[in-house]
Specification:
Helix content is about 25%, strand content about 20%. The protein is α+β, with helices and mostly antiparallel strands. A hairpin with a 2-residue loop joins strand 1 and strand 2. The structure holds zinc ion.
Length: about 270
């Protein structure tokens, strides 16, 4: 079966990947495959391998068609990579971008559940960020926030061949993004967040990425504009089946979000304008 990638999947990262097709009759395992390299011309073998050249093989043979297994056009396909704690203590799993943000949200909302607070907090799990920051538009309208903190992963650049210009490194704390392709954060909010990290001694690193973007790219344009900042957990190999994050960075990220939210009273927020 041919398929359409949802979000930014790079062809070589998909070839040979075990996957699961989620059908209305249950999950069907399979593998993403390409034309056999032994049958490729010299030039073909160099790639690039685009999604349109790949397919999912669920091992059917003879006269059986995919619908015999309940597979229909539009069924989602997900990579198979179980959550694994690596010997060095890092966590490996699929889709840390942005399941890490989802768990950060749950933990932060738990910590902020105490009855006395100076603000109202909406914890939002947005949909379809990877295909055009769509849920950020609807949830922005719905919550109409005064300030937005986007919980994300950051692109770790501490692996062989990576650049060092924007050093997102595992184990060095929460990353505070000061620039990406869709958002230049409100500088007063940015400085406030960095100040909280320093005062509370939360390990942190500043990051700037000239590519990519987050829900922040949409939410900061909501209504008359929303001071917005992106805080993230550095993650290796995002947009692949197996990403790697560090628990210490995750804990630092949750702590920073909680401490920042606690400081946001009316006077502080008004000063961002
Ligand atoms: Zn992403």
């Amino acid at each position: 079966m041919r398929f359409n990638p949802l979000g930014g999947w790079w062809g070589p990262r998909m070839i040979g990947l075990p996957v699961s097709i989620r059908t209305s009759r249950g999950d069907v395992p399979g593998v993403i495959a390409s034309k056999n390299p032994f049958e490729m011309e010299e030039e073909e073998r160099k790639g690039p391998f685009k999604a349109k050249d790949l397919f999912v093989d669920v091992g059917l043979f003879g006269k059986k068609k995919p619908d015999a297994l309940g597979i229909r056009p539009g069924d989602p396909v997900t990579p198979l990579c179980p959550f694994t704690i690596l010997p060095g203590g890092a966590y490996m799993a699929k889709a840390w971008d942005d399941r890490a943000g989802c768990v950060m949200l749950v933990e932060a909302m738990r910590a902020l559940a105490a009855p006395k607070r100076r603000n109202a907090v909406f914890g939002v799990g947005t949909v379809q960020e990877e295909v055009g920051i769509r849920g950020a538009a609807t949830s922005g309208h719905h919550t109409n926030p005064d300030v937005c903190v986007v919980l994300e992963v950051d692109v770790a650049q501490d692996t062989p061949g990576s650049g060092t210009e924007s050093p997102g490194r595992l184990g060095e704390g929460v990353s505070i993004c000061v620039y990406d392709a869709t958002l230049i954060p409100n500088t007063r909010l940015r400085d406030h967040v960095i100040g909280v990290a320093r005062r509370k001694k939360i390990p942190h690193q500043l990051s700037a990425v000239p590519f990519g973007g987050t829900d922040g790219g949409r939410v900061h344009l909501n209504a008359r504009g929303v001071p917005t900042i992106v805080v993230g957990v550095p993650a290796r190999h995002i947009h692949s089946a197996a990403g790697i994050i560090c628990r210490r960075d995750f804990d630092a990220a949750v702590k920073l979000v909680v401490e920042v939210v606690k400081t946001l009273d009316g006077k502080t927020v008004a000063a961002f304008a």
